[in-house]
Amino acid sequence: MSNITFIDRPCGTGKTTALIDELEAWDECSDLPVIVVTPRLSEVKRIISGAPSARIAQPEDDGDSTKLQDIERLIDQGRNIACTHALYVRLRDLAKKGKLTGHRMVIDECPTPIELAPPISKKDFKEEIEGKGLATVDEETGLVTPTELWQKRAALGGKKSFREKYALAERGRLLVTEERELLMMAIPVEMLLAPASLQILTYLSEGSLIAAYLDKLGVSYEVKKWSGEQEWVQRQADLITVETFELPMVEKKTNQRGVKRAPMKLSFTGQTKMASAPALKALGNKLMNMQKRGPLKAVPKENVMVTSAGSLWFADGTSEGGRTKCGSLSRNTGLLGKWSFDRDTATWSVKGGWTWVSNLTRGVNDHIHCSHAVYLFDQHPNPIICKFLGKKPHEWGKAFALTEFVQWLYRSQVRLDKPVTVFIPDDRMRAIVEAWLSGGGEEAAVID
């Protein structure tokens, strides 16, 4: 079993720099080769250029071989390797072959280990997949293993072949809860256990999905906290100014079949399914006024970092090829701007608009020019995932929310020890953040 360690150290305090220094001192005669996994290509390049003596290789797709084939070749050669999270999660077959046992692995920032799978009804799973012998379920881990019968049915196609789910199960990525709700693993279990050792560089690991996932699996791990954390948090309280503004009111049905008005919810569902068009328009107008004549009037637009549900900011998506059409929120702000994509670094930049940054962003320095931030989220872990992990959403959800928020905010200039002002209009999120900055941690947040 792997020796798994979380290096739990605040953002911007040198986790990656320390890793680069360690790699630069790497000795092929006494040290195991290393696979370093980072969120973005730009960070891969930073690590390779920062430790030239380690001769770190980057897997390539050269036409004769894929990146997966190239990384297998590099592993067989005992090379030090740097790759992205996106490539790392595809290495299950190499882990099953025992190819990773001779390397130690370092993951810079926690990747998401588990997500919701494309849904089917519980009845279909119980009756059509389990009941007809298409798969078996490990009741301890929830792992769904397909049978040859499902393989044959998937090859034939048809409504009851469940081909998309079969593809996930065949790759060892399909899971179910006890109630047979579907989940999928972004990181198969073998990936975490296969290397000679695994280090995960992050902050506030207690709120991370990957630590909760290891708890679920019964896999032991060690958390190494930084001794200077308390003093660091005190410094952040001086650097971070938390502000708020009123959210638009929306109508909500009551149990008595009546209707009451309440502030718009900023959970993902609250933004995308419960918010009315007038509420989104009102929120967009409020953001526009903040920039035109309010507290952000003197701030260059590009220096304001914002997050929301991606579909509300960009109607054509957030991946390459998108970011040109206003979503239902940004349409009323005038703050979309003109976006461009750099293929070499796989990064986006904007001119004449706010810098939209996904609330899931990890470990990148692309936005350290941002001096102000607008956090349009109330972070909650998915209740189905919580059920699978054995976590209580109300209690563990506060640690999760704080972890997600801190990772997001520390893409801004605060990671350079420069002041930042963040607008958090949701009462619950603001209470969690203010409690952390006051030294009380997420436990001190009492607003539901």
Q: Can you describe what's shown?
A:
It is a single chain. The chain is of the alpha/beta class and 448 residues long. It has helices at 15-24, 41-50, 67-76, 85-88, 92-96, 122-130, 148-156, 163-170, 189-193, 209-217, 229-239, 268-274, 277-292, 310-313, 383-389, 393-409, 427-437; strands spanning 3-8, 34-38, 81-84, 104-108, 114-116, 135-137, 144-146, 174-176, 182-185, 197-202, 222-225, 240-243, 249-253, 259-263, 304-307, 338-342, 347-351, 355-356, 372-375, 420-423. The strands form six sheets. A six-stranded parallel β-sheet has the order 3-2-4-10-1-11, sandwiched between helices. Strands 12-20-19-15-18 form a five-stranded parallel β-sheet. A three-stranded antiparallel β-sheet has the order 5-9-8. Helix 16 crosses helix 17. It starts with a strand and ends in an 11-residue tail after the last helix.
What features would you highlight for this structure?
disordered C terminus, Rossmann fold, six-stranded parallel sheet, five-stranded parallel sheet, globular, 448 residues
